[in-house]
# Entry
Amino acid sequence: MGNLLQVSAIKRQKRGWREFFYTTFFCLAIAWLLDFFDITSPLTATLIVSLSIGWSIHLAFHLLSGLVDNFLSAYVAAIPLTAVGLSVGLLIAGTLVAGSPLLFFQDNYSSLVLGVFFGIVGLVIFTTRAHLIEVKTQLAQAQIKRQEQEKLQLETELKLLQAQIEPHFLFNTLSNVIGLVHTKPLEAEQTLINLTTLLRSSLRRTREQSVTLAEEFTIVKAYLDIQKIRMQGRLNYTFSPENFADNPDLKSWPLAPLLVQPIVENSVMHGIDPAESGGSIHVDAKLVGSNLHITITDTGLGICQDGLSKESGGMGTGLSNVRSRLKTLYGDAASLTVTENKPTGVIVTLLIPRKEQ
Amino acid sequence: MTVTAIVVDDESTLVDYLVNKLGELWPELVIVGTANNGRNAIALAEEFDPDIAFLDIHMPGLSGLQVAEALPANTRVVFVTAFDDFAVEAFQRAAVDYLLKPVTNSRLGLTIERLKDSSGNQDRSVLMRFLEEATTGQKNYLQWIRAGYDDTTQLIAAEDVIYFKADQKYTEVITKDNVYVVRRSIKELGEELDPAQFWQIHRGIIVRVDQVASAKRDLRGRYTISLRDHPHKLRTSQSYGHLFRQM
# Structure
């Protein structure tokens, strides 16, 4: 964003000088034209009058436009600015030519008439030009904006790839499996099955554009079951609906993968795991109109008064990934809101529109 | 003389596993107790004054590092961690032993050898100094703003804020669609925001830099700011004009 501002400011500065040269050129052309057709004479006086008016108008625009623009549109503002510049220019020209400032307002109207005429011509030419420049700048800005959006999307995709499986989580899970393998072989087996589900889904994620809600729930449950092995009684969870028998619509509802799991992971890592007594997670999905509402409620530590998660301030990376993905995938149609749970914890609500594949 | 130890890990599977392994590889060692969190670990240490403490680093409540600080100096500490935490480098530099999970027989054997050979106190102050070095300088900026809307408390992501506006003692938070109220002064808020992302442009206004679409200067050196996602125009006061001047 900063570079956009800088570019336009530099342009404006350069444009100021360029405008000055155009103005001078315009004035010289008028003087030559008037002299050529013998409308006014002598040439020196014509040049003085012409340049006085031109430079005064230029100066009026340069100094006053910032002030006037606040009340009037740029095009309307040009009219009084030209009038002011014209009057000042004639006063100066009168002083320079005959030593009498009011010369061109009392005795010699020809310069006033010509001034008004060429003032209008100049006004039309210069405002048209300014308008063209404006349009060009807007186009350039739109282009920069689009490039920034593309960059954002790439970054989001990259983050998604990186965020798939945290090494810490993997090592922890494997240590638990090793710990269980002799004493509780069935639990060890189940944990490996869950880990397989999670790993497979995370590989599929990169290739598939869409999963069903039922599939995403399976992934989330696999993740939670692994964490349950680790955290034992400190973690509990419930889902509603528990199964999708009565809800074929909900079951097959298509959504982008990796939207619910990172939020649940966030709740576990930053809400429940750091709490000595642990907590519980409830995941709720329902259709409201043509939107899917998913609510993830936890009873963890929540976010403390200073706006950072109580543990380490790490809360939010998972959530901001989901937020930016929602934005790139669904635009403003989807949303993620975070509210506080009472007495402790966090409620995250996802609103996801139906997206046909 | 018997050697005593405590084993501390929030995951009971891993406590059992380590206790079993120690039983196999060092049968003379007496495990006087195990704990699942930092507070219980400190209580255990006070009760039994063990020679050795195996401490998991990542635990709810007090971390293993905090427990180590509270232990008596004659207790030798072995840290246990699942992953190459930033702390591992500190352990190496301070010559404090550590085990990576999953713990293997050969690595645990090495640790046992070291524990048997060495006597005397560990100098854990060196470790703590290294850890402090590693953790300071990471200032956490405000990521979520707790704000009132109707009767609910909402958490607004800092990246959703367009600008903050002082409203007497409180502060209004302006997002794309809503205006929320925070019961804190804009001065307090401003100190906790990331200065790379938020600029104060007026005594009563803080704007997110990303949202600035253009800045237009008037004759008195003040700027009128147009925003990207909001129709409001903001005006800087003279003393904050330098933010835009060099542009």
